[in-house]
Amino acid sequence: MDERAALSFLGDRLPHAGDDAAVVDGQVLTTDMLHETTDFPDGTTRYTAGWRSVGASLSDVAAMGAEATAAVAVYAAPEFDDSDLGEFVAGASDVCEAVGAEYVGGDLDESREFTAATTALGRTDAPVARSGASPGEVVCVTGTLGRTGAALRLFESGETERANDLFRFEPRVAAGRELAPYATAMMDSSDGLARSLHQLAEASDCGFSVERSALPVDESVREVADGEAEVRELAVFFGEDFELAFTVPERELSAIRSESPTPVSVVGEVTESGVEMDGEELPDRGYTHGGE
Amino acid sequence: MDERAALSFLGDRLPHAGDDAAVVDGQVLTTDMLHETTDFPDGTTRYTAGWRSVGASLSDVAAMGAEATAAVAVYAAPEFDDSDLGEFVAGASDVCEAVGAEYVGGDLDESREFTAATTALGRTDAPVARSGASPGEVVCVTGTLGRTGAALRLFESGETERANDLFRFEPRVAAGRELAPYATAMMDSSDGLARSLHQLAEASDCGFSVERSALPVDESVREVADGEAEVRELAVFFGEDFELAFTVPERELSAIRSESPTPVSVVGEVTESGVEMDGEELPDRGYTHGGE
User: Fold this and answer.
1) Which positions of A make up the binding site?
2) How far out from the chain centre does Cα B286 lie?
3) Which of A20, A129, A174, A269 has the most neighbouring CB atoms within 10 Å?
């Protein structure tokens, strides 16, 4: 099985799987694992790694429309250097502080490769699932798209300070909380916008029609991309931007825009079926870990 | 830094670190990582691996005297085989069910080595820390000691079915809940009894005097051990048995014995300082991962 088939296999067995996080008695729980070879390019500081890995789990809490309360991590490495470990903990603590959560530690483990396994805890009485979108609603994203793709190019070209800055995203917890009362379906864009739209379409049994020109492409993408095709690749497919993709009735847009602390862009509308961009089918593909 | 120095380094930076689990607003959160090369000997089934890895986190919830509510895991492997994955999920689900918690899934990740990163969530309004033991109290353990050491010998000799049985411990959540109102300090024995006593002594600023003859050595230990020295090694130092080690005033013993669903053995008493067995200093060492 590939990873997608395996996730589907799990979804059939576990009633709570299939959303960005599980919800048990109002507690939101989600876990992720990131590896040096696939997730942290050469030049990624341990501070950025701590921020980003814990941030990925906090983003899943945000996608449920929940408050973030705490996070833990397992820091696994071939050896424990106090500077590296201190930087990781500082990054993990700072990203938690940025969203009002508390970093409460975790565990250490010897591992051949630097690996971070992170878990975030949140709380909500009204989680937003992926399954509530209806035709006629609009589909929106928070913030900008393509930042992570641009960061990877900057790591490759040695501009590591700028790349690290772009890599440290702010999990959209505050926005998710404000959007939750209005959003009919929501998830984070960790696998890219295209893949997120396909996942929302499948969960909600609907389609999407989005406009390329409406996408909030991050300004860093245009700096690094070689032509419009690459801009599209980084903004639409690359993913790992950890923005929120969500659907709402159009009449709620003004309320959302005034309440969300992060800018919201309408990128298209919910349709009966099919996922299209500018009238053409949008492939269900994203960034695949492992460099395929 | 070695792992102990690194944990101490973390403890200085994170106010919630240092107990078996962190507690935030009555929610108990703990995370662990287990690897094939260090934690799952040849012959360990994926069912046992799922049970044991999730069980290790549930044991930390038990050590806080908390109710266990949910668990998640990241299953990381070079490839995803549906039989392996199904077995892992079944083991993870079954150990949760055994303690009244719910296994709610998690994530998948490609990794060079089979690795399980597990997180358990619990709830308590009165967590039991490691720091409350006082001289004059007694020190007790639940269940029996040495089972995991015996299991490793059985894996080595090819008796894998019996070894798998011994490897699937029951996390002491129910016992921990009953002991919590009485216990002055508690932790799980995942690093072995000797190490646990030293950790309790350090956290409580006390000492211990235990009797070798009072230890509840698992019957499997005598079957596999070659002489009394090896029995002692497996029961006292080996660890990974995930029993609870705790202190209580002696007058509470009859209440504890009638309420704990797991047998409780008094193994010694709390002293002013020093950790001794049969009047001799008990070394602060345990099972070190990685085969040192």
Assistant:
1) 20, 30-32, 39, 60, 106-107, 130, 188, 190-191, 240, 287
2) 13
3) A20
Find, in chain B, the residue whose alpha carbon is nearest to that of A4.
Answer: B108
Are A31 and B103 in contact (CB < 8 Å)?
no
Mean pLDDT (chain B, rounded): 93
Please provide the CATH number assigned to the domain covering B138-281: 3.90.650.10
Report chain A residues whose CB lies below 8 A from the CB of B28: none
Q: How far is CA B121 from the centre of its chain?
A: 16
pLDDT at residue B239, rounded to an integer: 87
Name the 3-class secondary structure at B40. Answer: coil
Q: What is the number of alpha carbons within 13 Å of residue A83 lying toward its C-beta?
A: 1
* CA gap A51, A110 in Å, rounded: 21
**Cross-chain residue pair B14–A112, CB shorter than 8 Å:** no
Confidence category of residue A15, pLDDT binned at 50, 70, 90: low
* CATH H superfamily, domain B13-123: PurM-like, N-terminal domain (3.30.1330.10)
Q: Tokens representing A250?
A: 């159009």
Chain A residues 233-292 with a CB less than 8 Å from chain B: 289-290
| Chain A contact for B26 (CB, 8 A cutoff) | no
Instruction: Considering only the beta carbons, identify the residue of B9, B35, B104 that sits closest to A24.
Output: B104
What is the identity of the amino acid at B15? Answer: P
According to CATH, the superfamily of the domain at A3-123 is PurM-like, N-terminal domain (3.30.1330.10)
CB contact under 8 A, A80 and B109: no
Q: Which of residues 216-235 of A touch B (CB under 8 A)?
A: none
What is the tens place of the pLDDT at every residue in B94-146? 999 999 999 998 889 988 899 999 999 999 999 999 999 999 999 999 999 99
Q: Domain ranges in chain A?
A: 3-123, 138-281
The 10 Å Cβ neighbour count of residue A9 is 18
Q: Does A109 touch chain B (CB under 8 A)?
A: yes
Quick: pLDDT tens for B192-225: 999 999 999 999 999 999 999 999 999 999 999 9
Whether this model's ipTM surpasses 0.85 comes out as yes
Which residues, 6+ apart, have CB-to-CB distance to A192 below 8 Å?
Answer: A236, A237, A238, A239, A240, A241, A285, A286, A287
- pLDDT category of residue A2 using cuts at 50, 70 and 90: confident
